Amino acid sequence: xxxxxxxxxxxxxxxxxxxxxxxxxxxxxxxxxxxxxxxxxxxxxxxxxxxxxxxxxxxxxxxxxxxxxxxxxxxxxxxxxxxxxxxxxxxxxxxxxxxxxxxxxxxxxxxxxxxxxxxxxxxxxxxxxxxxxxxxxxxxxxxxxxxxxxxxxxxxxxxxxxxxxxxxxxxxxxxxxx
Length: 178
Description:
There is one protein chain. The protein has one domain (3-152): 2-Layer Sandwich (Beta-Lactamase), CATH 3.30.450.60. The strands form two sheets. Strands 2-1-5-4-3 form a five-stranded antiparallel β-sheet. Strands 6-7 form a two-stranded antiparallel sheet. It is α+β, with helices and mostly antiparallel strands. It is elongated. It has helices at residues 39-53, 88-105, 112-117, 119-129, 140-147, 161-177, and strands spanning 13-20, 25-30, 60-63, 66-73, 76-82, 130-131, 134-135.
């Protein structure tokens, strides 16, 4: 491939996915619809990547013509995929931002159960870092500030009706008093 003829592009990330220690998908986002168009092809790619990387100590792999950077934590594997000519440092910056941001919202407890309990925050973080394959942010503090996500707040589904009503009364009271 002649690299001189390649046009520069902002679309640096082809996919992001998080797998558990058995290689099962917990989250995946593919940004190039031509890369792996079907769910079956995506899962096959993820399985191949997991099989090649789950026992390796490296951080970068070249599989199926793609550049893959990855990191593991307890029982999770984080992957960022780019094209073969992509700068590995940019992909590593995305991976580090993702991991550090998740580490903050999960209170340094980056494991499967905590990740699943906070999936809405995980999706917000991924969407704040990458949009359609374009890297928007690589600073974890900026991502957390933009997301404004707090783990200590209970979602509405976990609150009782009385708690929701009390919260609504308080908000109405303070809006009237202002």
